[in-house]
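Sanity check. The docking grid for pyridoxal-5'-phosphate depends on where the pocket ends up, so I'm generating a full predicted complex first rather than guessing from homology. Inputs follow.
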Amino acid sequence: MRYPTNDLEHFFMPFTANKAFKANPRLMVASKGVECTTHEGRTILDMSSGLFCAPAGHSRPEIADAVSEMLRECAYVAPFQHGQPAAFELARRLKAIMPGELNYTFFTNSGSESVDTALKIALQYHRAKGQGQRIRFVGRERAYHGVNFGGMSVQGMVKNKEAFGPGLVGVLHMRHTWSEDELFVRGQPEKNGVELANDLQRFCDLHGADTIGACIVEPVAGSTGVLCPPKGYLNRLREICDANGILLIFDEVITGFGRIGGKFAGDVFGVTPDIMTMAKALTNAAIPMGAVAVTDHVYKTIMDATPGVEMFHGYTYSAHPAACAAAIAALDIYENEGLFAKAAELSDYFLDAIFSLKDLPVVTDIRGIGLLAGVDLAAKDGTPGARGGQAVQDLWEEGVMVKMTGDTACIAPPFISEKSHIDRMAEGLRNVFGKY
Ligand SMILES: Cc1ncc(COP(=O)(O)O)c(C=O)c1O
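Predicted complex below; grid placement will be based on this.
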């Protein structure tokens, strides 16, 4: 073992029950492909691709080599007023695969930074157009947009705000798109798409369209439990944004890079945003990195209006050379192994396996698209989250990992998974959820 596993006190762990974890730790000391090895030497089948971020499987040597070479050759370049060719190459590579006119990319270090960057780009865009009064943002209930102050403010998961207050003022939330009327739907629900999107129109009518800068949504709400947009929903949001001069931001931190059966959600649903955030899967989780793509129009509006430094925003580690090298190597793997197509091909088999859990008494709803699915479990003794907490431990013992959000299992297998892995996943979920 490279590092001790018996003194865990001093790490203040994120989104974790620290005290319970330290009393009964779940440590991984190695990861390869679709499997991880625990500190006790057991194997865990990773059916959440880490946190939706390692679709090509863990610890890919091609990425390790690219990172290692870059760290020896040019470990760091100050990204303000200087650059490293790898960043420009990565931006070109992304331009080639992103939908619509999304042709310019700003680099960050995480999804949260990408969201806050996207919101700031939206504000600057409107100022560049002489519309600095457009400072309201529209988000959605049950959305997740990371944990920084902008993202926390526009997101709509209650627990993520509870201890920190409301965040930015002037944020409005549309209704979420989950409905009790349509349970166990595979793909997009049929009902209420236009009606729910019209919440944005109501905000325009109530607050004045010219006070709203941007509407941000996850095309498929991921962390909250995989909520597919009802038919017509995203198109209607696009229409309202266009009619009212509002920027549409798609947070594709989970949906990007093949997760839902096409390269990006924009391709799958035929609606492209003005700004798109990315992070997970960009480097196949080898190095932290995020990105924000903007259309030609957004980029040129800001460039043309501003002399000198066009945007007073950036991170010490924006476009870090090692992260760029990791991302280029990851994109090579996705392309060379045809992994986005492989994910799309595996989708039916995966969704069949997930929807086969429908008969379990504890399962109250299932949703899914591509290689992404959410399984709701009934709350235990009326205490939301207790069942999910128990499931994390029980799945650990069963040797299968998925992400639990509250009482919902979020499942996102690596694209390199074989049918036998999907079978084992279904068996493991059935063994655990069947006991409840
Ligand atoms: C849609 C979405 N946006 C933003 C984030 C935040 O990303 P990060 O955890 O890399 O900051 C996440 C993370 O799950 C996400 O799902």
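Relevant for the grid: Residues 110-112, 115, 144-146, 218, 222-223, 251, 253-254, 279 surround pyridoxal-5'-phosphate (CB under 6 Å).
Also worth noting: The mean pLDDT is 97.
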